[in-house]
Amino acid sequence: MVQSGEFLRKLGRYEEAFASYDAALKIKPELHEAWNNRGNSLRKLGRYEEAFASYDAALKIKPEYHEAWYNKACAYALQGNAELALENLQRAIQLNPEKYCKMAKGDRDFDAICEDERFQQLCSQTSSN
User: Fold this and answer.
1) What values do phi and psi take at 63, rounded to 5?
2) 97: alpha, beta or left, given left = phi > 0 and alpha = psi -120 to 50?
3) Sign of dihedral through CA atoms 67, 68, 73, 76?
4) Whole-structure pTM value
5) Is the distance from CB of 25 to CB of 35 less than 8 angstroms?
6) Taking the CA of residue 30 as centre, how many other CA atoms within 13 Å lie in the half-sphere pointing to its CB?
7) Which of 18, 69, 102, 110 is a Cys-bridge partner for 91, taking CB atoms 3.0 to 4.6 Å apart?
8) What distance lies between CA 43 and its chain's CA centroid?
9) 57-77 confidence digits (pLDDT tens)
């Protein structure tokens, strides 16, 4: 069910993907990846509060799960909440600097905050390490 959810999400069928992740989580609620991907589907549907709850569920299971920190940052950025976007992005970058600094610079989810000096500093500090 998780794989079918991922397939549906990649096809842009977010409502169906969400339902697939829900079904998987009913069977195995400790799947942090399913919680994260459920959050991604909800984020694409613009259901941010539910997405945050899903990311938080993933992080409760695996606190160092950098993908969930990053995805949570994306959702906050899409909402225009620079403070929480930067806070969560910083956590993701701390856990995996090479991946997330580079990724954030080109991620359209951060368009609303990419000119923010704190965003620029966060990414440039990490890329120079």
Assistant:
1) -60, -25
2) alpha
3) positive
4) 0.89
5) yes
6) 0
7) 69
8) 8
9) 999 999 999 999 999 999 999
